[in-house]
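Hi support team,

I submitted a single chain yesterday and got back a structure, but I'm not sure I'm reading the token output correctly. Could someone confirm the output below corresponds to the sequence I sent? I've pasted both exactly as they appear in my results page.

Thanks,
R.
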Amino acid sequence: MPLVAGFCLVTVMWGIYVRVFASDALVVYCAHDSVYSESILNRFSKTSGIPVKIKFDTEATKSLGLVELLVREKAHPRCDVFWNNELLGILRLKAQGVLDPYKGSGASRIPDKFKDPDGYWTGFAARSRVYIYNPKSVTSGLSYLSQPDISRSAIAKPLYGTTLTHYSVLWDQLGPTGLKAWHADLRERGIKEVNGNSMVKDLVASGACDVGFTDTDDFFLAKESGADVAMEPVLMKDSAICLIPNTVAVIAGSKRKSEAQQLVEFLLSEETELALANSSSRQIPLGVLEEDAIQKLPEEVKEMSKWTDSAVDLTRLGPASEACIQWLKTLDE
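Hi R., thanks for writing in. Yes, this is the structure output for that exact sequence:
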């Protein structure tokens, strides 16, 4: 009996320990791929001494599921920091009052066109919209897509993911009429619409298509797998380039605001941007880098870093995105 009683006591005490200390953990909702983000968050926890509990999204829902969850939890937030892998969801959260403003030293190293002017979110470590193409079949993605027949090209369905950001930028730049005409023209000339950028990448990498719209991270995955592919940036109006940053924000109502702000500073640091630049996704640093840090960048990232000067200003994209989404929902009704 004493042994049983002792075991029960240990079990009870362990349950109390888990409840108490788990409640002290900083809760992070993270839409960036766990293969890249988990090690960064674990390093933050190790260096700061702040325990972190991470909730990832799923491949099926991308970041949309976490955005919707944060909206549902607005009255009783469980999350302290949201690390999103794109922009539009964070704009929606700001509009619905889910975010708390925070301007720290980390944000000061990020150019204005990649952060909210009021401090509700800040971007870092971007991907770019690019053409991925087979250099044995075509000389460039843009030249191929100028032809009458583009049936050997592909684009992700535009209602989700970074293709939605691409379309939202075009809605803002060209206006509704211009974007609708552009989209209709692609369809009339035979472009394939598929389920996601990774499928676009696979079609070009396998030779089933010659050209596709995708992001730099998918291009580098294809390249590392041994595929014979090349890329070039998709140019928007006035030759602007569509860079899509990761974004980070503190959740309104967080009871761990000080710890949340520490994590924001860590994610916006030179150290984190270098880690993501050197990962397989080859993400593009947005903040100012010291010379010794620049030398630590992969050569391809050094080249892509030049694109930041020509990047589209994304800070005012919210209204265009909402209007674009409403139109896209009607396309195949």
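A quick pointer for reading it: Residues 1-22 have pLDDT under 50 and may be disordered. Let us know if anything else looks off.

Best,
Support desk
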